[in-house]
Amino acid sequence: MRTWSKCRYALICAALGVFVAGQGLGADSTAVATIAEVLATPMSERDGSRTFVVRGVLTMVHPHADVAVVQDATGSLWLSIDGQSHSQKQVIRPGAEGTEVEITGQLYRGGYTPVLVVRSIQALGAMDLPPPAEADLEDLFLGTNNGLRITCEGVVQAWEGRAGHGSLLLACGSRRIWVHVLDSTGLPAEESLLDSRVRVVGVVGSVRNTRGEFLAPHFVCSRRIDIEVVAVPPAPPFEEPVVSLAEVGRYRYGPVSAHRITTEGVVTFVGDKQLFVQEGLRGVRVKTMTRPAVVPGDRVRITGFIEKSRLIAGIDGAIIERVGSAEPPRALAITPDEVAVINGRAVSSHSMAEPSDCDGCLVTFPASLIEAKRSGRSGELVLSAGTSTIVAPLTERMVEALGSLLPGSRLELTGVLQVHFADADGAMQVTTTPTLQRMSLHVRSPADVRVLSRPSWWTPGRLAVLLGGTVLGLAGVSIWVWLLRREVASQGRMLAHEMRLRRDAAVEFAASTRERNRLAANLHDTLLQTLRGIDYQLGACRAFRDQPTADHAMYLEVARKMVNHAAEELRDSVWALRTMPLAGRSFEESLEAVARQTGHGHAERITIRLEGEPFELPHFVAGNLLLVAQEAIHNAIRHASAATIDVVATFNADAGDVTVRIDDDGRGFVPGEQVGPDQGHFGLAGMRERIERLGGNLEVRSLPGSGTTVIAHVRKRQYDERLDVEAAEMLFSGPAG
Predict the structure, then answer these.
(1) Measured in Å, how far apart are the chain's first and last C-alpha atoms?
(2) Is pLDDT at 402 greater than 90 in this prediction?
(3) Residue 260 near residue 241, CB atoms below 8 Å
């Protein structure tokens, strides 16, 4: 009984511990927030510094972009899943709509609405998608429903299909909205889908600018079942009643439909996926899905949708049918200034332009060419007609024919005039009558541009160029003479400086050589003999090891070895101080002697080679090169632990160049990180100073574990012999010491 009481007490304590631990973990974890709370976060805190946990149902997962939308009872939020792991992307994947998820992430500003960058996600199970709200066009075009699941009904006015997905243009009353269909499998073909009434369920997106400002809505429809064809087109193409071209876009008594209309006209211009048709003084631009297979002069029947993106009624998504041919309308002789006056008078009087606004009409007028521009394969003519400036776009074929026109040419142009309107604020406002902003001219062929007169060859521009060229030529000659004099003076100073440096190098070499010989003799006669004497004395002391003293034998042996080592080091120093073996020897023989002396007592293999045709070098130049070679060989033996050292001297008799290259297979180093003068090592710095004082250059190449290459390059000068004589006189002008 007592045992059972103890067990029960232990179980109660364990349960309390688990409860307390759970409470502690709950207190430290981030609480689940509603989407409305996330969206209400101030702009200043949408910088990734805040972490949120939200719970809701996935309503859209984009298969071609790493974005998705989650929605709860309070609102919807865009998600960024870029950079997520494969397992997390398996949760947020195309077709996962209807999955309840719990998401942890950081909040950022996004392009318009806030975006939650997903850091972790957990699928909680399947649930029903939230019922779509009926679209309120006013709210939609104010940008307040972003991310919500909405349903909207309208007439399909355009369809741009791709492999498995596409976009349709939906006319909802007086507004048009693009619907991006992520899965178009099973949708009717384009010709049967156009002009049908459909009901779409989708997530609201936004068209925005780079400042994060809302411009227009669009829908994202992720499932094929969310598109329902409510009604087929009211009539097959071309079976609607024909509307005259003059009535397109104008007032009509009775209800106005978003369905397509049918009209007729004579083709005046054919471009890429567009054409212009005209009847009398009424012209209309027609946009098609492909390049129309008609030519100017064809009479065509058109079925399509009225659009007013240019603030002028046109026809979009058109299907073209040729019904015959006719004489193209006669070009109206009217200047752009007159067109501007007609349209301006209509704006001020609140009436229609009479006899026509001339947009889309074939016109002819004289103009002066300001500039013929080229941009890739296309181009444009910039024209001046009175106070108006007109731009005439050119195709590749017309650029080749008209691109050589000279500015100032007087031309007569024939083409389709296009009037571009803007309101008083420069943007489309429904409360403002649009005013004419600019005009352009669509030229049909090079024959539509007739040259009336060509500019005189002596144009003000050419005269200015000629005078400017003359002035620049005189200025150039003056500058050239001044630069030539300056260069001669600079070369003279450089030559004098180089001679001074080389003379200093020769004098320094002679002086250092004499001093090195004196120091070598002194060291040999004094310090070296002294060290040998010490070695002898220590050896004598070793003979008395049997005397009753402390254990001195070990210390004496160590001292003897140290003295022997010092003697060897001193011998190396003596060799380094002795005069370079130049007298009576060739450069190759001297180089071999330096190699023997420096490598004496070492196992390294040193090879000496000469390339090119050797020529006699001044004593101080050869000596400095030998000192550099000696230092490089010494470094390879002592510091790089090299096994082989290869020395190559290359002579270029034509240029008077000599290059000495020393390669070793030692341990190498990182150039710039080696020890230097600050640490008491002057080898590389000394070699570089020697060569630079001769006007040459020294290059050191090395990599850890890949050996080292030292390249010394100098050039023989004509005045070196005189400097060599002066150095020799200094060398033998006094006692050697």
Answers:
(1) 114
(2) no
(3) no
Q: Do domains 236-328 and 330-454 have the same CATH topology?
A: yes
Q: How would CATH label the architecture of 32-126?
A: Beta Barrel (2.40)
Contact between 162 and 204 (Cβ < 8 Å): no
Secondary structure of residue 506 in the 3-state scheme? helix
Amino acid at 479: I
Three-state DSSP class for residue 245: helix
How many angstroms separate the CA atoms of 141 and 155, rounded?
Answer: 18
Using one digit for the tens of pLDDT, what is the confidence trace for 446-491? Answer: 999 999 998 877 767 778 888 888 899 899 899 999 998 888 888 8
Q: Beta strands 314-325 and 362-375: pairing type?
A: unpaired
Longest CA–CA separation in the chain, Å: 141
Q: What is the pLDDT of residues 555-604, one digit of tens each?
A: 566 566 656 656 655 555 555 554 455 556 788 888 888 888 777 767 67
Q: Which residues pair with 384 in a beta bridge?
A: 368, 389
Whole-model pTM: value is: 0.55
Helices (H) and strands (E) in the chain, counts: 14, 30
**If you search the block for the tokens 């108006």, which residue do you land on?**
388
- pLDDT of 322 reads 92
Residues listed for the chain: 737
From the number of C-beta atoms within 10 Å of its C-beta (0-12, 13-18, 19+), residue 319 rates as: middle
Class assignment of domain 330-454? mainly beta
SS (H, E, C) 383-447: EEECCEEEEEEECHHHHHHHCCCCCCCEEEEEEEEEEEEECCCCCCCCCCCCEEEEEEEECCCHH
Class of domain 581-731: alpha beta
Inter-CA distances, 154 with 44, 176, 203, 227, 685, Å: 39, 9, 16, 11, 84
Q: Which long-range contacts (CB under 8 A, 24 or more apart) does 498-501 make?
A: 498/695, 498/717, 499/717, 499/719, 499/723, 501/693, 501/694, 501/695
SS3 77: strand
Of the candidates 169, 172, 137, 166, the one whose C-alpha atom is nearest the C-alpha of residue 156 is 169
Tokens of 654: 């034509």
Q: State the pLDDT confidence band at 335, using cuts at 50, 70 and 90.
A: very high
DSSP H helical segments within 253-389, as ranges? Answer: 336-349
Domain boundaries defined on the chain: 32-126, 133-231, 236-328, 330-454, 581-731
Unique residue bearing structure tokens 């260069």:
487
The pair phi, psi for residue 157, each rounded to 5°, is: -110, -10
- Dist CA 384 CA 373 (whole Å): 14
Question: What are the pLDDT digits (tens) for 158-216?
Answer: 888 777 788 889 988 878 899 999 887 777 777 778 888 999 999 999 998 888 889 88
Report the CATH fold assignment for 133-231.
OB fold (Dihydrolipoamide Acetyltransferase, E2P) (2.40.50)
CATH homologous superfamily of 236-328 equals Nucleic acid-binding proteins (2.40.50.140)
C-beta separation of 668 from 704 below 8 A = yes
Cα separation, 343 vs 426, whole angstroms: 17
Q: What does 627-642 look like in DSSP terms, one character per residue?
A: HHHHHHHHHHHHTS--
Residue 438 neighbours by CB under 8 Å, 6+ apart: 389, 391, 420
Question: Which one-letter amino acid corresponds to residue 166?
Answer: G
Query: Both tokens of residue 460?
Result: 């003000």
